[in-house]
Every structure is written in C-alpha cells, then in structure tokens.
Amino acid sequence: MGTWSRMTESDFQKVWKSADEARQRYEDHDTSTAQHSVRVAHWAVLLASRLPNFPQARLRRLEITALLHDYGKTFLDPAVIRKTGPLDEAEWVEMKRHPELGLQNLPVPETVVEPDGILWHHKRFDGSGYPEGDIAGIRLALEARIISVADVFDALTSQRPYRTTKPAYEPPEALGIMREIAGKQLDPSLVPLFDAVYRLECERVGGQAGARTLQVRSAIGMELERAQDLLRTIIGGPIDVDDPLQGIPADNPVLGRLVAGLLRSTLDLRSAENVARTVLKMPLSDTFRAEDILDSDYKSKSVAVQRGVTEFPKHHREVVLRLKRMPPNVAYMRIVVYQGDLWICVGEREGDVIEVQLAR
Ligand SMILES: [Fe+2]
User: Fold this and answer.
1) Exposure of 343 in the CB half-sphere (CA atoms within 13 A)
2) If you measure from the C-alpha of residue 152 to the centroid of ligand 1, how many angstroms do you get, rounded to a whole number?
C-alpha cells in the first residue's frame, strides 16, 4: 500500500494500461464477457468512492483489482468458460479455480492490487461460495465485497452464456434481486449504498437508461483506443492527430483495414466504420432518418442527429430522443452518431416507443 500511495499519475496510467491489456487478453479468450470487467471496475469505483476510508490511492488499487478480478479465467479450458448452458460438476471444479489462478499469475506487480479482492470475489457474505476457506462477513476484504456487488449487478444486467433462456434483467429488477440476497451472498450494508449510487449515477446521466449508456460508453473509449493502435500499426509509427492519414489519399484501403480490425462482438459493421472514420477524421456514415424521430427535447437536436452533426449545447451530457420505431440501422449497443466528441446510441424499449440515448 505504501508503495502504491506514492505512485504518480503516470505510473498509475502505465499500470492501468498493462492491467487493461491483460483484461483484454482474458476477454478475447472468453468472448462472451466483452467489457464485463471494465463495467465491474466502473461500478466498484463508484461504490467505493462513497465509502469512508477510501482515498484516491486505494480507489486506484481497487480499479486495477476489479479489472483483473476474472483474469484467472485466461488459464481455464476455453470449452468451460465459453460453454452455453449450465456447467456440470467437473466443469464447476475447473471454474472455481479462477480466483486463485488469477492471483498466481498476476500480470501486474502484487503491490498495485488488493490480492484478497481477487481471491475472495466469489466468497459469499455468509461464508459459502469459493474458494475454500473459513472466512465470512466483514472479515472478507472490503475490496472483495465491493467487487462482488459490482460483479453481481453486471452479471444480472448483461446477457450471460449460462443464462441462455433468460434475457438480462432490467436494472430495477436486478437491484431487487440484490436486496433479496443481501446478507446471504452480498454485504448487506453495501447493497443499499450501491442502490443509491446507481440512482445518483442515472440521474447524473439523465434517466434510467443511463446504466446501459454507461456500459456502452466504457466500450467506446476502448474501441477508439483500439482503432488508434491499429492505425499506428498500419502506418508504422505515431499518429499525427491533425492529419492521421498523413497525406495518404482518403480512398485508400486504410479505412477497410481499420474496420476489419475493429469488428468484434461489441461493434457491428456500421459502428466499426464510424469509429475508424473518427480516428481518420473522415466524414461519418449516415445515421437515422428524420421520420424515425417521434419527438425530442429540442427540435434542433433531431436535425443535428439526422445530419450526424453535433449542434447540441456543449454542457449537455446526454439527450433523449423518442423514436417511432427502431430505425433499420440502429440496434442496441450500437454507435450511431458522433462528430468531434463521441456520441453513442443505446436503444431501450419503453412502452411502444424506443428511447434512444445519446451520450458523449
Ligand atoms: Fe469471477
């Protein structure tokens, strides 16, 4: 802890980068969990930031720990972690090794994580769960209890391979389930706090759909970075941000190569193309049409959205548009519009209309 608290911002950024690369290796290995650890880290830090005795240095350590909480799954049989449907007994034995494996194979120095946060993130408040060990309640590291709450929330609100028949829960339902398991699986003092933190965060970003938006927002930052990395590889050197194509004609195959490199579970073709175009400073692909838009807070917004031009006041973090129907080129977790600052779109059903949130 001592070493950690003396770390500078740039040291932290370096450690975060290697932790995140490790997380990406694991999530490439387990293709079903894209961005899960990023969201868990996000919620864990939001929750912990409301707790006393959680200075910045400890928060940073928690963030790295949460990013790597499932890293041990990298070392498991892919057939087990990618299995759709329930695990059998032998597969569970394998699965339960991941907290210890993660700790034994840490991709970052042990001083920058809270080892107990990784080891005990599946240990339940009542002492059940795994790994084996006579430990329960507040004797479990606070980091482990926090990650457990964030992990359960994300697991309930995301589509998971072992829950093939059921869709993800809506956040209010998930919070209800968490209240039921408080004291058994989860720390009963952290659950109401998480509930409050979740609501505050939604208010901040403007409405209940904020949780989904947050999840997507975290994904997009990563995709932009990935696009920049790919571009560096393609041009064989650093990127000139003012002229990323560096004299190469815009109709060259760079765009195609970037898009091909970007395509994976979190991005569809149009979204990948928009990310690539943003990095190359090219005009964006089309977005949805004016007739799809039922109403919005400001008339100018629909026009702006339709043209793919950001005319929104800078202080608006998010706008909500109500659409008559899901436009054919818009799907959940899809980037639709951005220009300059990044704008994203998340479609969520609300009665008969689709509510689309755009966030920067
Ligand atoms: Fe886990």
Assistant:
1) 27
2) 10
